[in-house]
Each structure stands twice: as structure tokens, then as C-alpha cells.
Amino acid sequence: MDSADVIKVEHVTRGDDTRAWGPPYAPRKDGKPGPGESAYFLAVNRNKRSLALDFKAPDGQAIVKNLAKTSDILVENYLPGTLAKYGLDYESLQSQNEGLIYASITGYGQTGPYSDRAGYDVMVEAEMGLMHITGERGGAPVKVGVAVTDLTTGLYTSNAILAALLSRNFSKQGQHIDMSLSDCQVATLANIASSVLISGKRDGGRWGTAHPSIVPYEAFPTSDGSILLGGGNDKLYGILCKRIGFPEWAVDERFVTNAKRVEYRHTLVPMIGEETKKKTTQEWLEIFEGSGMPYAAVNDVHDTLTHEHVLARGMVQEVHHETCGPVKLVNTPFKFSNAEASIRNAPPTLGQDTNDILEELGFSANQIEDLRTDGVVA
User: Which segments does the entry list as coiled coil (predicted)?
Assistant: First the structure.
């Protein structure tokens, strides 16, 4: 399976904003001044090449147009109409490459009353319902611990691009894909959105780690942390009761069905919690081992990245970075039977590949030097 050539077009002097989002930074190993590379940038830029370019300059616009002529896909995240000022909008570029798939990612889309608003993950989490259903029962709304709306939008966009590529195989035509954080966040409300649409009632608010319609199905305290227990049906609930030493709870008339357990959750959940607090998380993991019931330790991110299963699945990979030396990165989750998806190249330094890319476009060494002198590229 051939690998995609992904070219990241960055601001000519400061680069991608995330290069400055730190600390922490991976320290430089080349002795030059500066903080190194931000962990944030390193997280999302593996296997890319960096072209540092000023597309406000006519010569910079010409370079992007030249790239677009032979590219399969262009992804941009500017406010609607911004790139049209430079002749870099879909209509302009598609006229030179009818097969171009042009994906625009914005906060609120190309149309609608909010289309001119800048949209960041946390604002969209708030505006589009996610924050209202995230947090402890009775507590304040909170954002998800990672920029999950950004991530789901990226995943939806990659799916849309793949669909457009398949369509192009038959039609020979590319297309403009309009993706927004707001649309994707609404889509990922999933069963909660469906419940509200069907019932006509407001959502049930925040449930912490608990489930609104399954009991017991949440995190319980241990003597040194927490464990997630999933008694998702009557059989699994019976296993839970037996393993914690109270098989009689499985036949207690208050708890014999899930509907009953939901009704009496405020009685049952504290009963379980009082027992789980008597042992460590590791002791409970050993007790539930092989039971067939879903369970898990509530780990922090450091424990996750040193977890035996995570390491066995190759999800942490060390690569050599141009200026920072060896750095560890999270690997791609894809596992193919007839191909290998991996980190081929470390995230690039700003403009690391400018010369190579311009040479591939036919620029001479003198032309490249002139562009660099004029501040068009770096």
C-alpha cells in the first residue's frame, strides 16, 4: 500500500500555532537556542512535510496553486471566503484540477447564521450540547479532557475524503467538502440526541461515570483509586455480586432486573462502593479476572502509556526528530493484514522540506534562494 505524501503549508515565520502551545517542549539536542518542539505539535504532525510559505504574497499563491494542480486532496481551516481573496478557494483551484477534493473545516460551516464565527473545540462543546452532559451528577458542566470535537471532526472529514475519492474513481470529478465542528458535535450526541428527539424532553444532564439507564455501570472507589464495573445485564450483575462476596444481592427483589436497579440505584450503588473501598484496585482486578464481566482500572495517562497491553499493541513508538533527537510518540491505531501503518517520519521542523518540495515543482536553486530572500518561503 502506497503512503500518502502530506504537505503541511505553514506560516513563513511562526509556523503552525501549535508549535507555540507549550510547555512541555521536547528539548533541542542540536545546541541551538529555543525551547525545542511543543508536545502539542508533535502529537499531530507525524508523517508530514513542512513547507513554510507566505500565501499572501503573489509568488506564494502561485506555489500553492502549482501544488493544487497535481494534488488529490487539499484541506484548509480558514473562515468562509478567506482564501477566495488569494485565488485559493475551491472554485479557483478546481478550474485547474477537476479531480481535486477540497475539504474545508470550520467551526460552524460554510452556511448558516454562525458561519462567520471563529470556532474552537471548547466553544462548540458548550454550544452544541456536549458540555451539558459531561461532568458529575449535580456538578457544573465540564469540557472533555481532550479536544474531542476537533478529533471527531477530523475523523468525519477523513471518512468524507475517502468517500469522495471512491466517487471520483467513477465520476472523475472532485468536490468541495464542507465540514464543521458544530455539525460533527451534533452528530456525536448519538443516542442522547435521539432520546431528546423521540421524547421531546430535555436531556438528563450529567451522570459522571454512571449510565442513565444501566445499573451498576460506573466507577467505584477502591482503597487506592477507582475501578469501572459494568453489570450491563442480569447475568453480569450476578457475576459482580458473587465476585464482591454478596451473591444474595442478585436475588434481592429491589435489584433483580435492570429496571429495578435503575429505580434503586441510590441504594445499590453506595452498597457496592462500600465494599470496593476495602481493597486496592489491583486486588479487584485480580478478583474479576476471567469472570466474563467488563471491568477496568481508572488509569491516568502515564499509566496508560506504560500499560502492558498498550505497549504490546505497539501504540508507543520512538522516532528520531531533526532537532530534538529521540522522542516517543503515540502510534497510529490502524492494523492492516496486508500493509503496515506506522510513523515513517517524525513531525517536521518549520520549513524542513521547503527546498525539496519546491525542487519537485521545478524551481531552481537560485529561484528558491530568491523566494527565501523575499520572505516568501523559509
Answer: none
- 217-298, which class in CATH? alpha beta
Please pick, among 121, 150, 178, 183, the residue that the annotation labels catalytic. 150
Residue ranges covered by each domain of the chain:
6-188+307-373, 217-298
Coil/strand/helix, residue 321? strand
* Cα–Cα dist 63/53, whole Å: 9
* pTM value surpassing 0.70: yes
How would residue 1 be classed by pLDDT, with cut points 50, 70 and 90? low
282 sits in which H/E element: helix 281-288
In order, the DSSP letters of 356-374 are HHHHHTT--HHHHHHHHHT
Does residue 150 have an active-site annotation? Answer: yes
Residue pLDDT, tens place only, 199-248: 999 999 999 999 988 999 999 999 999 999 999 999 999 999 999 999 99
CB 340 within 8 Å of CB 44: no
